[in-house]
Amino acid sequence: MLVFIACYGVSILDVTNDAWLLSGEDITQHYIGWKFYRASEWTFPIGQIQGILYPQTSCIIYSDSNPLLAIFFKLFSPLLPETFQYFGISGLLSFFLVGAFAGVIARRGTESRCYCFLAAGLTSFSPYLFYRMFIHTALASQWIILAAITIWVYRPYFSSWKKKTAAWTILLVAGTLTHIYYIPMVMLFFFGFGLQDLISGKGWKEDLAAAVVSIGVDLAVLYIVGAFSVHTSMEDTGLGVYSANVNSLINPVIFSRFLPGLPYGEGQLEGFGYLGLGVLILTAGTVILAIYGVYKNRKKTAEENALPEKNGRRDTLAAGISVTIVFLLGFLLAFSPVIRCGENEVLTIQYPQFIISLLSVFRTTGRFIWCVAYFIISLGLITVGRMVKKKGAVVFLAVLLVVQAVDVWPLVQVRKELVHPESGMVTMKSEEWETLAEGKIHLTILPWSTVHGMNGLKAAYETGNFAVDHGMTINYFPIARIDYEKLAEEDGVLRQKAENREDEDTLYILDTREAGEVLGLVVYEIDGYYVGVRE
After folding, report:
1. How confident is the prediction for the chain on average, in pLDDT?
2. Which residues cross the membrane (predicted)?
3. Among 45, 237, 418, 488, which residue carries the largest CB count within 10 Å?
4. So what's the pLDDT on residue 301?
5. DSSP class of 275
6. 366/455: higher pLDDT
């Protein structure tokens, strides 16, 4: 929390301050998605957004507006101010929970509160957290990954079926309602949790039952929210492009004060996973301590290791194998199916088609590198806390925190600019827009691609914002999982409506003046757009 306020300030926590959200960047899409959702009537499914792809509907999941918070705040919409944004609160909450779970994980290795506090600070300076914050804010809710690791490392506490089922189900649903990419991330650690139980022979059948319940509840939640109500393929293009580079964990790109950037492939910034110099030193220290621990305990007999108070040789083996497999799976998911080292393609994994189809739903596989990165930090914090004397561990972590903060500060400086944009969306300047929009309930773009094609993404966001602010629907807004064939069909329907002169309530943006005149519209040229109305 302190890291967040020091880096971003407090002005963005003002829920009525939305100027910083209207820069035309990706967060603008997320905010406008929330505005359309808030303006929509309550229906079933409860996450349905009306008017954003009129006459089609969409779902709050696909506007990346953090559905968990969107649904919560919509419940209280009548009590909220007319302008209301929760993205600053979301960012603060993410930093707080990242630090909180990191501190809880660190406590698994030591009872030192000072050490746990420093662990929270170190983890809060994770470069990939800053890299995502206020770009894809829902994807900066990386506390979900740390929460999954927390359940695993506190496995004895979650030994009963009720506790493990409740914990994993709640976390899976929370992750799903934050961003769907957290579904496989949570399941990765759930798999590791269950695998350890399987190898140690303790409660794996209960884990299997818990998984069935968790997945069943999660599917039900997705249905209730409306994830399956969008009639388009869940698969997306770009699999193999948006992966993590083999050098991802040590590649700061241009965001380190100490280390040089390394080459990477096109699209692979989606797999940005630089650990930071402080965490790299922590990792090296962890490896050294682990080797020392193995050397120190080399003379222990199998009988000693088998004693219950020593946790047993089988439990140790189960932990080691499950951790190793989760690491390997995390790397495999992040790097594949096209593995690149620097700018060179090393290997293309020929997965079966059903795996390709599944991965295509989560095409930006590079994001799985965050699971690996946070797992590295977690194991490092536990190992140092457990194997180094309290004062030494505190001093060591304090030094690492300073090194980490100084190292990633260039990235922090760049990301701070996101909350202080120099310019926003300024395409629609003329006061004529206000005059022509009076009494209209639909903003129709014919063809739908006109604004996006002519003036780019910012302009498409701006027309959407204009529509929702004036209580109008719009037939195109750039969100995820759009059925473009359906959009083209709707163009014909909307054009027919215009030809039948059933459009007195419609404001048009057209690709040419002639297109409007053919439809019998009065056409104005405003801010580079051809704007048509029925008079």
Report:
1. 92
2. 84-106, 113-131, 137-154, 166-193, 208-228, 240-259, 271-295, 316-339, 367-385, 392-412
3. 418
4. 46
5. -
6. 366
Note the pLDDT tens digit of each residue in 21-41: 998 889 999 999 999 999 999
Identify the sign of the CA torsion 359, 251, 125, 32. Answer: negative
End-to-end CA distance of the chain: 55
CA distances from 346 to 40, 265, 340 (A): 49, 12, 5
Tokens of 120: 């929270």
User: Taking the domains of the chain in order of start, what are their residue ranges?
Assistant: 16-85, 89-419, 432-533
Calpha distance 278→124 (Å, rounded): 12
- CA 404-90-95 angle, 5° bins: 20
Contact between residue 249 and residue 372 where contact means Cβ atoms under 8 Å apart: yes
pLDDT, tens digit, 9 for 90 and up, residues 479-498: 988 888 899 999 999 999 99
Compute CA distances 119 → 36, 100, 143, 289, 316, whole Å.
40, 9, 14, 18, 25
Report helix, strand or coil for 442: strand
- Helix ranges (H only) for 243-368 are 277-296, 302-305, 313-335, 353-361
> Amino acid letter at 284?
A
CB atoms within 10 A of CB 183: 18
Report how far residue 175's alpha carbon sits from residue 188's, in angstroms, rounded to the nearest whole number.
13
Q: Looking up tokens 């309550």, which residue turns up?
A: 42
Mean pLDDT for 337-358 is 91
The full DSSP string for 52-80 is: EETTEEEEGGGGTS-HHHHHHHHHTGGGS
pLDDT at 466: 96
Three-state DSSP class for residue 350: coil
